Amino acid sequence: MDNDRIEVLLGGIGCSVPPGTKWQGFLRVEGFSPDFDVPVVLTRGSEPGPIAVVIGGIHGGEHNSIEGPRRVACDLDPTKLKGLVAIVPVANRAAFHARSHNGSPPDGQNLARLFPGSPDGTALERVAYAISSKLLQHADAVLELHGADALEVIIPHVYVPEHQPGPGVSGQRPWTEWDLADMYCIEVIAATPHRDPGSPVNVSASAGIPSILAEAGSGDLDEHAIRIHYRGITNVLRRMGILAGLPLIDQPARRRVRYSRVQSPRSGFFYPKARVGQPIEKDQVLGEVTDYFGHERDLIRAPVSGVVGFIKKTMATNEGNGLFSIATDLKD
Ligand SMILES: [Zn+2]
Asked: Residue 107: pLDDT band by 50, 70, 90 thresholds?
């Protein structure tokens, strides 16, 4: 049964990967330059088993979300696993090579909002479609990886979509999205309902596939953040029985929070006064935004009590830009 599903996935890509071997190549993005083709490493175990899909580099400037899965793809030994692991180290090559932080040439779209994509849309809509149709729809678990880019600071966290499982689909798999989230060993696990309908994690979750989004690190390569992703991915593979052995869990992970976003009230200069990880009381000053002359000043106050989970690092700000996120504990 599992081998049949793996063969269907391989047929969609148009490659042959015998059991116990590895394949690397590209998902073709039809109608556009090969610069948009999506690199993927398929590691097929010598025995049948489930299918795990890991997508890094949705945002080209989040380097630790690229390096973590790249290292896992290099290290996996197909003779020592079951099933199939599909790893895309960098989904958005155009943004990566443009050294762009969030948008992507040529059209500035955000790939994380375009799933499941379209076969006859823009280049990035077709990238989303290639990943969705050739990988995500076949998955038994999906990991979408992110981190901060060079203009942000974050606390590592896992986002768990709260969704209604598709009819009978999740029930066929002996793990839930919360099981996968616990494998990341990160203290903060956010559970906001369907934050971005076009993100891979939410599209997969809506189809009933256990799916999580994990964020760690900054725009700089950072061994600690790379290890968070590496350990998280390999622990998920152990939890699924793809890799042998028990997951390496060294801290309790589950702390449910909801994020509140704080936006810039005007365009101008932004001066943060808080730091990521800092506990904050409601109405406490987080920073200020001024005009170009320093005469008009808007104090930015916390809308809720909690912990600062995200700060924008740029001095330049535009009205409506996200400046902070505050993580507030949810009661179980
Ligand atoms: Zn991102």
From this structure: low
